[in-house]
Design brief:
Strand order of the largest sheet of chain A: 1-3-2
Low-confidence stretches of chain A: none
Order of helices and strands of chain A: HHEHHEEHH
Pfam families (chains A, B): MarR
Number of domains of chain A: 1
Structural class of chain A: mainly alpha
CATH superfamily of chain A: Winged helix-like DNA-binding domain superfamily/Winged helix DNA-binding domain
Organism (chains A, B): Nocardioides donggukensis
Domain HTH marR-type (chains A, B): 1-133
CATH architecture of chain A: Orthogonal Bundle
Oligomer: homodimer
Distance between the termini of chain A: 27 Å
Largest interface: A-B, 40 and 40 residues
Radius of gyration of chain A: 17 Å
Largest sheet of chain A: 3 strands, antiparallel
GO molecular function (chains A, B): DNA-binding transcription factor activity
Protein name (chains A, B): Winged helix-turn-helix transcriptional regulator
DNA sequence: ACATGTTAGTTGCTTGAGCAAGCACCAACT
DNA sequence: AGTTGGTGCTTGCTCAAGCAACTAACATGT
């Protein structure tokens, strides 16, 4: 437990620092972009985005502000609901996300996977998912 | 990896929320107090505290401000170095820390350990320590 | 059709944390 | 002793994120 709490404090900062150094994206920006990029048509409702990125609506709203300002996403009215907005990944956004993906993968490898040792990845990943989303037992 | 990043986003908030609900301490406050309580004489230099809690000096300085304001620690001049300050746990601090410890343990059990399944705790803890402090291979 | 309630998203305010600049003290050389 | 450089801690500023309050649009009952 002790080691877990330390991990929770240290690792996010390392990953974020690497990403910020290599790209102009924060870890938050990056994960939001990843979610958008994986949605059909590379577009996603703000609310779903908030759920996916485990952030509040206001948080997402401001992240999308930033990303829009630097041209990586656009806001478009939701076709089926006049209140809703979709965040839509632009070409530049896709390009920049791919670059960031490379950087992030290298960083993750260096900080995490190189230290794993004899850990059983599958069972740990399962456990992590249960911890993060306990109400959804194993969908 | 995906599951790990989600864990890093979600778990700290859960643990912190539980602690804040049950006590008047944030997770940061709690971990700082734990470190102080484990030091000899329940006193610890600010710098060491910063290292232990994986925070910046300015961060620690403000946490100790808070804790001092509510009477859980005192600041005392370091005996051997006129620049240094020790954070010293008070009786009230010890008491309140113990209460928080109980709450935190229950919370950790509910959120984490109940979901672990067939994970080998020892190897995972080792791996986490290596990830958090890679320069200290296994002290 | 209209009034009421509910949901999607944004904005004002506050809080917590880091960086950089500053201050106080130590250490080492002359 | 005096100066010069390095260390320990605090403080001003900035930024990211959440909550609460608000607006706009849907949905439902009459």
């Amino acid at each position: 437990m002790r080691s877990l709490t330390r991990l929770l404090a240290v690792l996010p900062r390392k990953l974020d620092a690497d990403l910020v150094r290599e790209t102009r994206l924060s870890a938050t920006d990056y994960f939001v972009l990843v979610h958008v990029s994986e949605a059909p048509d590379r577009r996603m409702r703000m609310t779903d985005l908030a759920g996916g990125a485990a952030m509040s609506m206001s948080g997402i709203s401001r992240v999308v502000d930033r990303l829009q300002k630097i041209g990586l996403v656009e806001r478009e009215r939701s076709p089926d609901d006049g209140r809703g907005w979709d965040a839509v990944l632009t070409g530049a956004g896709l390009q920049e996300l791919q670059d960031a993906w490379v950087a992030h993968l290298a960083s993750a490898r260096a900080h995490v996977f190189d230290h794993l040792g004899e850990v059983d990845l599958d069972s740990v990943a399962d456990a992590f998912e249960r911890i993060a989303d306990p109400e959804r037992p194993s969908e």
